[in-house]
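quick one before i forget lol
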Amino acid sequence: MRKIYSEKLDQIKDILNEKNIDLWLLLGRETMDVSDPALRFVLPIDVMGVSAFFFTSDGKRIALVRNQDVGGVEETKVFSEVHGYKDNFDEMLKDMIVKNKS
Protein backbone atom coordinates (compact mmCIF):
# COMPACT_ATOMS: atom_id res chain seq x y z
CA MET A 1 0.00 0.00 0.00
CA ARG A 2 2.84 2.42 0.83
CA LYS A 3 4.11 2.00 -2.76
CA ILE A 4 0.82 3.25 -4.17
CA TYR A 5 0.99 6.41 -2.04
CA SER A 6 4.61 6.96 -3.03
CA GLU A 7 3.77 6.66 -6.72
CA LYS A 8 0.84 9.08 -6.42
CA LEU A 9 2.98 11.61 -4.56
CA ASP A 10 5.63 11.43 -7.28
CA GLN A 11 2.97 11.95 -9.95
CA ILE A 12 1.69 15.12 -8.28
CA LYS A 13 4.92 17.06 -8.80
CA ASP A 14 5.18 15.91 -12.42
CA ILE A 15 1.59 16.85 -13.20
CA LEU A 16 1.87 20.26 -11.51
CA ASN A 17 4.95 21.03 -13.60
CA GLU A 18 3.38 19.68 -16.78
CA LYS A 19 0.29 21.85 -16.30
CA ASN A 20 2.30 24.86 -15.05
CA ILE A 21 0.50 24.88 -11.69
CA ASP A 22 2.37 26.26 -8.67
CA LEU A 23 0.28 24.87 -5.84
CA TRP A 24 -2.37 22.20 -5.36
CA LEU A 25 -4.35 22.50 -2.17
CA LEU A 26 -6.59 19.81 -0.73
CA LEU A 27 -8.92 20.57 2.17
CA GLY A 28 -10.61 18.25 4.58
CA ARG A 29 -12.47 18.14 7.87
CA GLU A 30 -13.36 14.97 9.68
CA THR A 31 -11.97 13.31 6.58
CA MET A 32 -13.83 10.12 7.24
CA ASP A 33 -16.94 12.09 6.19
CA VAL A 34 -15.95 15.41 4.54
CA SER A 35 -12.95 15.71 2.26
CA ASP A 36 -11.77 16.17 -1.26
CA PRO A 37 -11.97 12.69 -2.85
CA ALA A 38 -8.35 13.06 -4.03
CA LEU A 39 -7.20 13.13 -0.42
CA ARG A 40 -7.67 9.35 -0.23
CA PHE A 41 -4.85 8.96 -2.78
CA VAL A 42 -2.27 10.92 -0.79
CA LEU A 43 -3.12 10.54 2.91
CA PRO A 44 -3.42 7.08 4.44
CA ILE A 45 -5.16 8.28 7.63
CA ASP A 46 -8.14 10.39 8.66
CA VAL A 47 -7.89 13.72 10.46
CA MET A 48 -10.51 15.31 12.68
CA GLY A 49 -9.97 19.06 12.41
CA VAL A 50 -10.17 21.36 9.42
CA SER A 51 -7.00 20.60 7.49
CA ALA A 52 -5.11 21.83 4.44
CA PHE A 53 -2.62 19.80 2.43
CA PHE A 54 -0.25 21.63 0.09
CA PHE A 55 1.59 20.12 -2.86
CA THR A 56 3.93 22.42 -4.80
CA SER A 57 5.51 22.17 -8.21
CA ASP A 58 8.96 22.10 -6.60
CA GLY A 59 8.02 18.99 -4.64
CA LYS A 60 7.13 20.38 -1.22
CA ARG A 61 4.39 18.55 0.67
CA ILE A 62 3.06 20.53 3.62
CA ALA A 63 0.19 19.82 6.01
CA LEU A 64 -1.71 22.29 8.17
CA VAL A 65 -3.73 20.35 10.73
CA ARG A 66 -5.13 20.93 14.20
CA ASN A 67 -2.60 20.38 16.96
CA GLN A 68 -4.19 17.06 17.95
CA ASP A 69 -3.73 15.66 14.41
CA VAL A 70 -0.04 16.59 14.03
CA GLY A 71 1.41 13.34 15.41
CA GLY A 72 -0.68 11.07 13.21
CA VAL A 73 0.10 13.06 10.07
CA GLU A 74 3.81 13.13 10.89
CA GLU A 75 3.81 9.34 11.33
CA THR A 76 2.64 8.87 7.73
CA LYS A 77 5.87 10.45 6.46
CA VAL A 78 3.86 11.84 3.54
CA PHE A 79 4.56 15.49 4.34
CA SER A 80 7.95 17.17 4.66
CA GLU A 81 6.39 19.78 6.94
CA VAL A 82 3.47 19.40 9.33
CA HIS A 83 2.17 22.52 11.04
CA GLY A 84 -0.36 22.51 13.84
CA TYR A 85 -2.91 25.17 14.68
CA LYS A 86 -5.16 25.88 17.63
CA ASP A 87 -7.54 28.73 16.81
CA ASN A 88 -5.84 30.46 13.90
CA PHE A 89 -6.46 28.15 10.92
CA ASP A 90 -7.67 30.89 8.54
CA GLU A 91 -4.69 33.14 9.23
CA MET A 92 -2.16 30.31 8.92
CA LEU A 93 -3.82 29.03 5.74
CA LYS A 94 -3.58 32.44 4.10
CA ASP A 95 0.07 32.87 5.13
CA MET A 96 1.00 29.41 3.87
CA ILE A 97 -0.67 29.94 0.50
CA VAL A 98 1.20 33.21 0.00
CA LYS A 99 4.49 31.65 1.13
CA ASN A 100 4.23 28.56 -1.07
CA LYS A 101 2.96 29.90 -4.36
CA SER A 102 5.67 30.69 -6.86
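fyi The chain is about 35% helix and 25% strand.
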